[in-house]
Structure formats: C-alpha cells, structure tokens
Automatic annotation (TrEMBL):
GO molecular function, one term: ATP binding
Taxonomy of the source species: Bacteria, Bacillati, Actinomycetota, Actinomycetes, Pseudonocardiales
Keyword tags: ATP-binding, Nucleotide-binding, Transport
Entry keyword Repeat: no
Protein name: ABC transporter ATP-binding protein
Amino acid sequence: MLRVEHLAKSFGGLHVLQDVDFDAAAGAVTALIGPNGAGKSTLVNLIGGVLRPDAGRVLLDGTDVTGLPSARMFDLGVARTFQVSGNVAQLNVFESVAVAAYRQARGYRAANAMARRELERFDLWRYRDERLGSVPSATLRLVDFARGMVSRPKVLLLDELMAGLTPHEVDVVVEQVRACRDEGVAIVMIEHVMQAVQALADHVVVLNQGRMIASGPLSEVSRDPEVISAYLGAPLGDGTPDAGPAPHPVAKGT
Ligand SMILES: Nc1ncnc2c1ncn2[C@@H]1O[C@H](COP(=O)(O)OP(=O)(O)OP(=O)(O)O)[C@@H](O)[C@H]1O
Ligand SMILES: [Mg+2]
C-alpha cells in the first residue's frame, strides 16, 4: 500500500531524516514513535507532500508519488491530521468536516451528505453547530479524525491524535481508529501515548535523531535496549496489546 524507501531530508546542514525505510500495509496501523525531535512529523510531512525529500521515494500502490504536492497526494488518497490542529476556530464542527469533503465530492449536496454520515458515525452529529474553538479537546480530536476519514482515504496520517486526552478518552478514540483500520485504511500514527500504541499498533517504527533504530511488532521493539534507552525508559509491561497500562504510559515526548 504505502512504501517509504530510503527517505532522507536535511534542513540546512541538519540531517533530520536519514535512510528511513518501511511499509505501511492496508488495514493495519503503523506507529511511528521516538523522542521529541526524532523526525516523526517531518517524515509524515514528506509522505503527505508537505515537504519534498532530498533522497528516497514514496510509493502508493506501487506508483512513485515522491514529491507530489499535498493537494495531489490528498486526491490520490493520502489524508492527514495535524499535530497542531490546523482547524479554524470560527468554523463549526459540520463546516470543518464538510470543507474536507468538498474536494472529494461532486457538489455541495454530496459533500454535506458525506459530512453528515461521517459525523454520525463518530457520534459527533449533536456537536454539528458548535464552533471548533468551544468543543472539548477529545471531541476536537474526533472531529479532526472525521475530517481525515471523510475523503475515504487509502492512507491516513495521524500526528499525535491522542495528545492531552484522558485514558478513557484515549479508549474512545482508539475504538474509532480500530474501526477505520478494519475498513482497510493504511494508518500511519505518530503517537507518544503508549496506551494507544499498545492497543493499536500492528507494526512499530522507532526513530531517533532521524534514523530508524528499530522496526517490528511492539513486543519486539519494546525489548530492544536501544529503544529503551533512547525512548521508552523501561520495558513496556509484557509488550503485548491489552497488557494494561505501561509503566511509562507517556514515554519521552509530549
Ligand atoms: N522547517 C524546519 N526547518 C529547520 N529545522 C526543522 C524544520 N522542521 C523540523 N526541523 C527540525 O527537525 C528535527 C525533527 O523535527 P520533527 O518535528 O520532525 O520531530 P518530531 O519527531 O515530530 O518531534 P515531536 O515529538 O516533538 O513532535 C528537529 O530538530 C526540528 O527542530
Ligand atoms: Mg512531531
């Protein structure tokens, strides 16, 4: 589905990413973890077409899409949420999702219907008239997620979707992510909240200082001494999903 080959990116002389290489399968969650400044958001920006790589390729269903602009990537089925919500606080919940649907839908009526369907599915319809600036943060995350899903993407890039949520709220959002994964979306999730990584990740890619230091199931990478010292601080429970809260539910990151 999504293949990242030997991606590299520098800003000035700073090598922010070097030789990053992994696949994100359809119907699976690929988690990108690592300490602050590891290059996770930069990687997602390269995949989403916000930035162009200096080297390497991005392949979507085998087609080279490296360096295409973000609008084109969106049309090809790569949607995303942002670490810092790009939402305009003056829009209401319905408008914000409908705006994301307009690009994909044929006409306003179809876009509005898509937005309604998505909001109902995420149990957000009752918030439709509220301004984004006034809804609680967990609800706003679900709205962001609904905006990402309304275009029926092949690949959904999530940047710290769970940040700042309570454990109960994380459970709610995890359920929604799982449902989208089960529809066959390839989900690439940057996440510091280990509760969500444990519950969702089929595959984990660990970045540190721009390099991939580990890649594999969480049960494996969480035992890797380099991953523990660079990021986790301590091994994670028994590393299996649903093993309960991690000793460090939020690892070294924000
Ligand atoms: N546009 C830019 N120009 C220069 N340096 C940048 C730019 N964007 C990111 N960087 C640098 O690249 C490095 C990686 O940043 P990035 O935001 O990708 O990290 P991250 O893993 O997402 O971190 P966090 O967990 O804090 O979100 C950092 O050192 C950052 O300062
Ligand atoms: Mg980031």
